[in-house]
Specification:
The structure is a homodimer of 352-residue chains.
Chain A lengths: L3 H8 L3 H8 L7 H13 L6 H6 L6 E7 L14 H16 L3 E7 L6 H8 L5 E5 L11 H4 L3 E4 L8 H5 L3 E6 L1 H14 L5 E4 L6 H16 L9 E2 L5 H14 L5 E4 L2 H13 L9 E5 L3 H5 L5 E5 L1 H18 L8 E4 L1 E4 L9
Parallel strand pairs in A: 1-2, 1-3, 3-4, 4-5, 5-11, 6-7, 6-8, 8-9, 9-10
Antiparallel strand pairs in A: 10-12
Chain A binds a DNA duplex (16 and 16 nucleotides) through helix 2 and helix 4.
Chain lengths: 352, 352
DNA sequence: CTGAAAGCGCTTACAG
DNA sequence: CTGAAAGCGCTTACAG
């Protein structure tokens, strides 16, 4: 591997000058710059990233940390989650296109929040994106270290310590889940539904809470009576949703429509109903959340709430990029909320 | 951020000794080791990864390079591909559990193969996994640089230059797609099918070629006559599969069963048939490839060929891990092939 | 078992 | 506009 000193020797300049050319500094004569550039090209010289970083440059790397609850033996932990994969995909694309490397890590238990600190302390990453944040995430993050360029997705801004926010060290990106579900309830009401149920997500997450909250508010504001039997517990996974639906069927306490905290649970619930010859949307209508591919391919196609994952992940990268470029902290404006679209398909029926 | 020199001062030893403790070298007295460890713990000292690498240690990072054809604007490039996401997920999990970091990059055109070189040259990665390799990939990789610890997934070993293989620098991991499709054809024949069609994958990839090859061989070996009309062109994506199926329907040249180079195309084709009131499996039987979640959730559930992605990606990481630990090259044994399982579900019908 | 010194390959003030 | 020197925070022979 050729190094800057050798390039310098070849061209007949000092290492400093080679460095200036590499870093595109202005104080180099055009003639010298050209010669150096040619040598670099000819000898395929590539500056050692680690030496550069040690000497004061950035690592040009963004860390992506996924908080995952499932056991490490599970073969489909990231994969299983459309939210994660869409997000990760977009982050990689956008970060790559801006010249950043992406370092991905999973966090599967509280001790592993340590990994975030570690990545920052070891200077492996310039900024980080924390995804799938649990409510209690923040207390596992040390004040001093992490507080550089951090974007948190799906976390209640209230939970971010004030000094983090004030110093503009942490940004928060959320989708407007409350409004989304509120709108979904209204849509069902417009279609004649009055008995509207809800399948809940994993309690610990903001989105689970907010989605349910939107449901409750909409029910109340529309003067519908709250019925406990219409609420099914859930954790975003299919298994639990299926069991809860099974119970509801046995009890015979089905509403005419369900809103589900995600598509996967909707799909599982619909399957379960199908096994009992209860049909969607003829007997029960369904609205999911996340706009997964499967929801689009199934029959009937699943009506769902679609967050703009791409815009959100793009924003995540851009925030870090801006921080790094300007080398300054965020302004007051460090909470971003994105609209969620109601995608009307075949799983909701108009009733009388 | 505290550094080794300060730890040394606190404990009253030299930096060398601190370094020995960090690296778990044997030549340190138990007493000293203990004291150093305590100071490290107390002051939350973390060695700077970049300094360590520069001084001769490994970067402890594995690069994952995805070759993707779709345009950068596409919002579901990685995500869209179950093969990629499953693979990536498993790699991250396994690599993380062994203490490696994972750097992910996408390669969307020939020029971007450069990225692999760059990551290695800049010493950002110790080893690499190249996924979704096209037939002509290898010529874009420079001999000298890349030739360290590289695992290639889904590439014809014949195409790897002999000196790469001989020096044990590159390993190849494939699934037994030929045998898989061969078996699938037999399964269809057992179920009474004689008119068996095939929807092809993207020509440039090994798996597309091998899967089709397995089909051709099985047709021939079973004495069935090859019918050109039964073969639909494809590129692993739904759009093309749908169009081709539409054409076949218009021509009226449908076989009684199709094997598809992946599940996505099967799903698209089935949808297309459905729009023409042609039912699966009543009128046409289907076998997919990849065992996607969608295939499992649709009605009827898709019969499919399921590669062991998890085992394959695990092996990828383990190979690199072994290389790095032993610091030696691979033996003659550097081609690995994994069985593919036929998962029998509802999309194949027994006919007379 | 331990320490002083050189070195990893860059960047960055400092001088000129 | 350019170069010599110091420094980034580690590791690794070398001596003892």
């Amino acid at each position: 591997m050729i190094k800057s000193e050798e390039i310098a020797k070849i061209v007949g300049v000092s290492r400093s000058t080679v460095s200036r050319v590499i870093n595109n500094y202005p104080n180099v004569s055009e003639d010298t710059r050209k010669k150096v550039l040619e040598a670099i090209e000819e000898y395929k010289y590539r500056p050692n990233a680690y030496a550069r970083t040690l000497a004061g440059k950035r690592s040009e790397t963004i860390g992506v940390f996924f908080v995952i609850d499932e056991a490490p033996e599970s073969q489909r932990r990231l994969y299983h989650n459309d939210f994660f994969t869409t997000y990760l995909d977009a982050i990689i694309d956008i970060a790559n296109s801006k010249g950043y490397y992406v370092l991905v890590q999973t966090i599967t238990c509280n001790e592993e929040y340590e990994k975030i600190d570690k990545a920052f302390c070891e200077q492996r990453v310039d900024g980080g994106i924390l995804i799938g944040t649990r409510k209690d995430s923040l207390k596992y993050i040390r004040d001093e270290s992490i507080c550089q360029h951090m974007v948190m997705v799906d976390i209640d801004p209230e939970l971010v310590p004030t000094h983090f926010m004030e110093q503009g060290l942490v940004s928060v990106i959320n989708s407007k889940d409350y409004q989304a579900v509120y709108q979904a309830v209204n849509y069902l009401i417009e279609n004649g539904h009055e008995k509207i149920g809800f399948i809940k997500g994993l309690e610990k997450t903001l989105s689970a809470f907010t989605r349910y909250d939107g449901y409750l508010a909409a029910i109340r504001d529309n003067g519908l009576s709250f019925c406990k039997d219409y609420i099914l517990e859930g954790d975003f996974n299919q298994e639990k949703a299926r069991k809860e639906m099974e119970k509801a069927i046995q009890k015979g306490t089905l509403p005419t429509a369900y809103i589900c905290a995600n598509d996967y649970m909707a799909i599982a619930a619909i399957e379960c109903l199908g096994e009992h010859k209860i049909r969607v949307p003829e007997d029960v209508s369904f609205i999911g959340f996340d706009n997964t591919q499967t929801g689009e391919l199934m029959q009937p196609k699943l009506t769902t709430l679609s967050p703009d994952f791409f815009a959100m992940s793009k924003k995540s990268v851009e925030i870090i990029h801006q921080h790094l470029i300007d080398n300054k902290k965020m302004n007051a404006e460090n909470i971003f909320e994105y609209d969620v679209e109601l995608i009307k398909r075949g799983s909701v029926r108009k009733i009388n």
